């Protein structure tokens, strides 16, 4: 079930909302929380009911480990429980997400013929596994309380953030679920929630899914791309991913606000960054937080000398790459970001400060090129696209004079007598417009902070929703979010 689907918007969400607050109204608070857990599990199992047993089993395992650890004062027992808890989560994630990847590489290196499992990646496994690893480690450190299983289960499964984050901490979520002041409908939160949700919905359906047409077509036809088409392909994916993930984050925040729950900010105008360290303070902020607190610091952080610090940086970025996907393209992408982060640190020692425009341009160019590895299905495909992007040809002289051949499968789409999706007179300005929006416009979090219910705001919400319905109807699109794959 997708946030942008009719069954979610017109059936699941309003029914859950009304029953949830209805139960609170008659003081059946535990029943209301139980309803939210069951609804979240229904939401999760909509894709594949089989994996319902996986997430429930994972919750029970981690809750028992945490409960036993909280009640134990014996250091050996606590160390053993910590080891078993982290190992259990890593093995679960490793088997479903990385088994085939490691087997393929083992078969290649040792000329073996171990059979692949061809496992279907369980939805959200990377997110709920990392959340529970953090819970186990925090319990070991004495930073958790003896939570009830109901509130713990809701912390893991809460549907607005279950599928693609943010990766939340128990201490920022469970107290909210136990806060009785949040058990009543709050009109201000409903209005704010609808406002930011509608922005996110428009980002996803109206913007990201449009860029997806050119990105997907380009990567599917990488061998035949011209110089211009190769750059349109890479930049289209760069903007598709931006508005897709940004849209999801907005929608998650908006949905949570409907239930009076505040989620942590996970996305804050990352393409405005002037170096790669700043980028990671703005992009998938809760993943950066997790890797910093639960991997970088335990490895020693920057406390064990300069070269050990650089090694630790490479490790956490390589892990970040692997977390996103089981493939060498993701490892290369993560490692490139690690190297770039080290370069920024070394450059900082020179005390030379580049003008903002230059530092921004270098950073954005690096991010755009690195996304090629992130999106490519193989290293070979990525290198082919790079070759096209840095080989000048005649296409640069005829940018607006001929249709885009790489998007020819969309030539049948016509509106008002124009083949919009293959017409560079539309594609190029569309790309430049939303690149400018990502760089110059206030982001949705800033808009939410300044939000005031008034006529202009209502009009903005209506425009977003109408545009979503129009694009969905015209292009017949109802696509998943990109981070569902990670």
TrEMBL record:
Which Gene Ontology terms cover its molecular function? acyltransferase activity
Q: Does the keyword Lyase apply?
A: no
GO BP annotations listed: alginic acid biosynthetic process
Which superkingdom heads the taxonomic lineage of this protein's source?
Bacteria
Which of UniProt's keywords are assigned here?
Acyltransferase, Cell membrane, Membrane, Transferase, Transmembrane, Transmembrane helix
Any single GO CC term annotated in Swiss-Prot or TrEMBL for this entry: plasma membrane
Q: Which residues cross the membrane?
A: 6-23, 50-68, 80-99, 119-137, 149-168, 309-331, 352-374, 426-445, 457-476
Topology in the lipid bilayer: Multi-pass membrane protein
User: What compartments host this protein?
Assistant: Cell membrane
The Swiss-Prot or TrEMBL record describes its family as follows:
Belongs to the membrane-bound acyltransferase family.
Q: What is this protein called?
A: MBOAT family protein
Say which species the protein is native to. Paenisporosarcina antarctica
Q: What is the lineage of its organism?
A: Bacteria, Bacillati, Bacillota, Bacilli, Bacillales
């Amino acid at each position: 079930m997708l946030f942008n689907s009719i069954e979610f918007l017109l059936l699941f969400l309003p029914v859950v909302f009304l029953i949830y607050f209805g139960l609170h109204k008659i003081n059946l608070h535990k029943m209301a929380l139980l309803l939210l857990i069951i609804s979240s599990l229904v939401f999760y199992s909509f894709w594949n009911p089989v994996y319902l047993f996986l997430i429930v089993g994972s919750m029970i395992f981690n809750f028992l480990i945490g409960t036993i650890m909280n009640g134990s004062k014996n250091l050996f027992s606590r160390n053993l429980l910590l080891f078993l808890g982290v190992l259990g989560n890593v093995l679960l994630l490793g088997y479903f997400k990385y088994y085939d990847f490691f087997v393929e590489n083992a078969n290649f290196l040792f000329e073996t013929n171990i059979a692949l499992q061809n496992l279907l990646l369980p939805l959200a496994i990377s997110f709920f596994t990392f959340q529970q690893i953090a819970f186990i480690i925090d319990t070991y450190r004495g930073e958790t309380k003896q939570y009830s299983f109901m509130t713990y289960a809701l912390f893991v499964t809460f549907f607005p953030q279950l599928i693609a984050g943010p990766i939340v901490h128990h201490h920022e979520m469970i107290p909210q679920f136990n806060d009785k002041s949040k058990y009543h409908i709050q009109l201000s939160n409903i209005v704010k929630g609808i406002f930011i949700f509608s922005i996110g919905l428009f980002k996803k359906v109206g913007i990201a899914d449009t860029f997806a047409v050119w990105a997907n077509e380009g990567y599917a036809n990488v061998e035949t791309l011209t110089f211009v088409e190769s750059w349109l392909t890479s930049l289209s994916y760069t903007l598709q991913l931006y508005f897709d993930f940004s849209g999801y984050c907005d929608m998650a925040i908006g949905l949570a606000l409907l239930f009076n729950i505040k989620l942590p900010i996970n996305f804050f105008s990352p393409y405005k960054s002037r170096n790669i360290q700043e980028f990671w303070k703005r992009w998938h902020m809760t993943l950066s937080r997790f890797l910093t607190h639960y991997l970088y610091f335990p490895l020693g952080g920057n406390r064990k000398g300069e070269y050990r610090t650089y090694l630790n940086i490479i490790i956490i970025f390589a892990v970040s790459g692997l977390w996103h996907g089981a493939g060498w393209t993701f490892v290369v992408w993560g490692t490139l970001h690690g190297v770039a982060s080290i370069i920024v640190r070394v450059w900082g020692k020179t005390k030379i400060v580049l003008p903002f425009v230059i530092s921004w341009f270098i950073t954005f160019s690096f991010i755009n090129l690195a996304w090629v590895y992130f999106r490519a299905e193989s290293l070979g495909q990525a290198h082919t696209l790079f070759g096209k992007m840095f080989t000048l040809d005649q296409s640069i002289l005829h940018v607006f004079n001929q249709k885009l051949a790489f998007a020819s499968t969309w030539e049948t789409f016509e509106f008002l007598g124009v083949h919009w999706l293959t017409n560079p007179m539309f594609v190029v300005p569309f790309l430049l417009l939303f690149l400018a929006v990502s760089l110059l416009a206030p982001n949705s979090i800033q808009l939410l902070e300044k939000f005031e219910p008034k006529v202009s705001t209502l009009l903005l919400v209506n425009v977003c929703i109408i545009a979503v319905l129009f694009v969905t109807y015209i292009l017949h699109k109802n696509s998943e979010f990109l981070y569902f794959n990670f």
